[in-house]
Amino acid sequence: MTRRPLALTLGDPAGIGPEIVVKAWRLLRETGPAFVVVGDHDALAAAPGAGDTALQRIARFGEAAAIFGETLPVLDLPLKSQVVAGRPDAAAGPAIVQWIETAVGLALRGEAAGVVTAPIAKAPLYEAGFKFPGHTEFLGELTAGAPHDGPRGPLMMLTAQDLRVTLATVHTPLARAPGLLSIEAIVHTGLITAQALQRDFGVDRPRLAVAGLNPHAGEAGSLGREEIDVIAPAIEALRAMGVDATGPYPADTLFPAEMRARYDAAVCMYHDQALIPVKMLDFWGGVNVTLGLPIVRTSPDHGTGFDIAGRGVARPDSLIAAIRLADQIAERRDAG
């Protein structure tokens, strides 16, 4: 275990977050990593299967590591509205935001080893006045004033088994993605990715494979010029900075096992180009990692699961993988 527990936010309490948190604790309680839930104690206690689980409110965050094996510790920040499984409610929005802010604050002060976030739903948060596209951008804002060594994110990385991917554009309509690509944006993505591979994943000489945007990586310009005008110059700039970057590669041939063995991370141009191979490779075990922050942050690579919330059938695999990866990254940072 890390010396400090991880701070795990409960996510949308009407989703599967409470259920998978309880299941993750049951599977990790004997071997760790230790974590404390930042959220509503009663919402967690109402989760499927939580009835025979000891849930202990904690007054001080430092108590969590000591009691984790015997009870699931909860830093209780109560909701001001009733929770109905499967029915998201904007009234829960302020509490969900408070849970994230509190967990990030704990990590910035060094009380938590890192932050793991259970899934949130964007629509009810937007209805409650949330101004950010998602977790990633909000975390960037919350940590903007904290010192950070190296290029700053936030940058989304997805991991599954031996595959790591980062994204030059993220939550944007596909029609807008080409216009958001620039040499500077791709270089920035590559630099953050290379630094994270060294610092957080223990890769001494990171190798980046950069995907093209168009079919067949543009086919020498006949299927689009982004590879010639933007992506290739960005790769050359990265190489001039000492980053082992190659490409642009056609995305349809970049992800088989033979190709994955040739790089440590793939830099992708848009959301689905990166997430489809991750979810095809390991749908249940994928992890979202936010790079370029002064704190460690991971999350499961799935949503709130409102359609199955309250039924007791949600799988905790991705959350467990996120907890373990956050712990591993925190240990590397502490050792470095």
Describe this structure in words.
The protein is α/β, with parallel strands linked by helices and 336 residues long. It has 2 domains: 1-149 and 295-336, Isopropylmalate Dehydrogenase, CATH 3.40.718.10; 162-281, Isopropylmalate Dehydrogenase. Helix content is 36%, strand content 16%. The chain has 12 helices and 12 strands. It has a 12-stranded mixed sheet with strand order 3-4-2-1-5-12-11-6-7-10-8-9, with helices on both faces. Strand 8, helix 9 and strand 9 (244-249) form a beta-alpha-beta unit. The longest helix is centred in the last third of the chain and has 19 residues, at 317-335. The radius of gyration is 20 Å and the shape is globular. 51% of the residues are buried. The mean pLDDT is 95.
Poorly predicted runs: none
Order of helices and strands: EHEHEHEHEHHEEHHEHEHEHEEH
Work out the count of structural domains.
2
Order of strands, widest sheet: 3-4-2-1-5-12-11-6-7-10-8-9
Q: Give the class-level CATH name of the largest domain.
A: Alpha Beta
By secondary-structure content and strand pairing, the structural class works out as alpha/beta
Tally the beta strands.
Answer: 12
CATH fold-level topology of the largest domain: Isopropylmalate Dehydrogenase
Shape: globular
Global mean pLDDT = 95
Strand % is 15-25%
Radius of gyration: 20 Å
Quick gist of this model?
The protein has 336 residues and is of the alpha/beta class.
